[in-house]
Every structure is written in structure tokens, then in C-alpha cells.
Amino acid sequence: MLRKFFHHHTGKADDKCNKLCCTKIDGFSVTFGKNDVFHDVNIHIHCGELTALIGPNGAGKSTLLKAILGEIDHQGNLYYFDAKGKHTGNPVIGYVPQYLNFDLSTPTSVLDLFRVSLSNRPAWFQSKAKERESVLHTLKKVKAEHLIDRRLGALSGGELQRVLLALALNPLPDLLLLDEPVSGVDQNGLEIFYEIVSELRKSHDLAIILISHDFNLVAKHADRVVLLDKTVVCNGVPKEVFRDARTHKIFGMLVNHGERGE
């Protein structure tokens, strides 16, 4: 079911889902057989902040997100805190994958995709008119309301990823995980997506983890950057991480940095 793919509901009421203040990833490790994917990962994620996760291929970035979702066995703990520093119940987590596999010839529309994702709700939950209005409201958050009747196969890469982002926002999550969500999207689509994500974290006080290789856009929009290479190599505001000698060594180049992180 698509809803399971985009959201992990963990017993928290939807109307109280945006109360998370801090997510603490404590001592996370994942091992497949004798393969150490990553070890001793410690990161604090704060609400209202966009945390970019960067690293070379094979560093364990996507695996870390799946471990947070509970889809992969791991060692370590996740702790969630409210504004008073008290432990909270498990949050609602939104997730946007790198891509969605589907038949390009399918007649399925964006609205149909939302209907499938909402299919676990009772039939009397809302009328079709209200359902459409609700979907339009969610799509508007990602500047994609005009796509509601568009076939999935007719969407550009950037448009599809904005639709998937909208799905992850329905209902509004406490923690939003974005796994290279604009891989293969053109420059214009990249900039639009980053601007939307940046605005979402401000307007909805979201905690966001974004895996990205788009260093210039990360430098411009991220509040914090975590460099992962089997473990956390360095962690800080963009300029700190992009100026770090360890970053240069791993990527074999000087990384441009933008205006954020002064």
C-alpha cells in the first residue's frame, strides 16, 4: 500500500503530529553479515531545521534513513523530545524516496495516487468533493495543485518528486526524510524543489533530513550538514563542513559554499 510507503504512523494523533522538538539518533550501527554499513552514528535533528546528509557512494546514507524508519535492523536508539526536553511518543514520519517505479502508460492520475494512499480510511471519511479539495490543499504546499488531474506518466521528474513530497505531507509529519529526492532532475527543477523544502521547514516547523549531492544548493538552503562516511566524519553549519579538510579529502575537490551558515 502506498500510504505505508510514504508514512510511518506510530500511534500519534494527526492533529497533534507537529509537536516534535528534537530527534536524537544515538549510536546507530548497521551490519549486513560481515559488512559494516555504518557504525556509531550520533546526530541531533531539530524542528524547523533542514539537515543535509552528504557523503560518498556507499557511505550508508540511504540505509540510515531506512533504519530510522525501522525498515532495516540496526543497533542504537532513537529518542524524541518535546520543547520541554521530555520524551515524546513516536512521531509521524514522512518519507520521499529517490523515485517511484510505475508503468508510464498507466492512466493513473495524481488524484488517483492520493486516493490509493488514503484508501485505508473509512469510505465515509469525506465526500469526493472534499477529498479533491483536501488533495488540492496538500498539492498547493508544493506548488503542484495544477497537476491534480495529470497522468503520472506525463509528469516530468521534478513534477513527480513534488507530488511524492505532497504525499509525504499528508498528514503533516513531525520528521520528514528525503532520500535524494531530485536525483536526475534538471537545474530548474532542483532549485524549485529546494526552495519548497526550505519554505516547508519554516512554515510548518518541520525537522527535515535530506540526502543530497547538490552541494551548492545544500550550502544555500541547509541549516546543518552532516558528512557521513561509515560514521559521522564532521557535522556543523554548511561553511564549516564544506571548508573542512576531511570533506575535501573525501570528495577530492574544493566544495563551493553559499550564504548560509555565517
Give me the CATH fold name of the largest domain: Rossmann fold
Helix amount: 25-40%
CATH superfamily caption of the largest domain: P-loop containing nucleotide triphosphate hydrolases
- The percentage of residues in β strands lies in 15-25%
Dominant shape:
globular
Radius of gyration: 18 Å
Residue-averaged pLDDT: 85
Helix tally equals 9
Q: Helix and strand succession?
A: HEEEEHEEHHHEHEHEEHH
Give me the side-by-side strand order of the main sheet.
Answer: 1-6-7-8-4-9-10
Main structural class: alpha/beta
Cα separation of the termini: 44 Å
Domain ABC transporter: 23-254
Protein name: Metal ABC transporter ATP-binding protein
InterPro entries: AAA+_ATPase (IPR003593), ABC_transporter-like_ATP-bd (IPR003439), ABC_transporter-like_CS (IPR017871), Metal_Ion_Import_ABC (IPR050153), P-loop_NTPase (IPR027417)
GO molecular function, one term: ATP binding
Describe the model.
- Residues 23-254 form the ABC transporter domain.
- There is one protein chain.
- Mean pLDDT is 85; it is low at 1-6 and 9-18.
- This protein has 262 residues and is an alpha/beta fold.
- The chain has two domains: 21-87 and 221-262, Rossmann fold, CATH 3.40.50; 95-206, Rossmann fold.
- Helices cover 32% and strands 24% of the residues.
- The strands form two sheets. The protein has a seven-stranded mixed beta sheet with strand order 1-6-7-8-4-9-10, with helices on both faces. Strands 3-2-5 form a three-stranded antiparallel beta sheet, with helices on one face.
- The termini are far apart.
